[in-house]
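Model: You mentioned two targets. I'll fold them one after the other.
Researcher: Yes, keep them separate.
Model: Target one:
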Amino acid sequence: MKNLQSTLNSPANRIAIILGVVALILSIPLIAMQFTNEVKWNLTDFMVAGALLLSTGLAIELVIRNLKTGTLRTIILLVILLVLFLIWAELAVGIFGTPFAGS
């Protein structure tokens, strides 16, 4: 257990984990496109989703590095995740009706 904790304490390892998770999440629609016509992503879709996920992961990493503990850290992390979900929903179905909503 101590070895896992020391691995996660290294910033370079945490960034590698973020990149791996982003690649894993982006592989889901890529694999789905091979088996069904329901999923139709193009390069722009992958780039936008990748940028959104990567920026969220790096923002979370920044908060974890700079705020060690406390209620403020938890609130900021929840706000970051809320913003991710709201942007994702807007891009997917246009819940707010902005011009950049997917259609």
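Model: Target two:
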Amino acid sequence: MCCSGECRPLGWLLGLPFAFLSLLVSLVGVIVWIVGLLLSCICPCCLCVTILVEVAIELIKAPLHVMEWFTSQIPC
């Protein structure tokens, strides 16, 4: 029997501890993002700082990616 919709509470509950860990990683991403923005204001020609800021943005989005992955892996 299949669920009607995208509601998967079991996947959400199992993914919660991992989402908490990725939330801590996203806090590190926020710090890296702020430092990267400051460095890019000082030296805008530096390409590695731009890449660092892009990686930081992906770290900030990590909790959402983790929860989406877990809810997609667990059937209803």
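Researcher: Noted. Anything on target two?
Model: Residues 9-68 form one domain.
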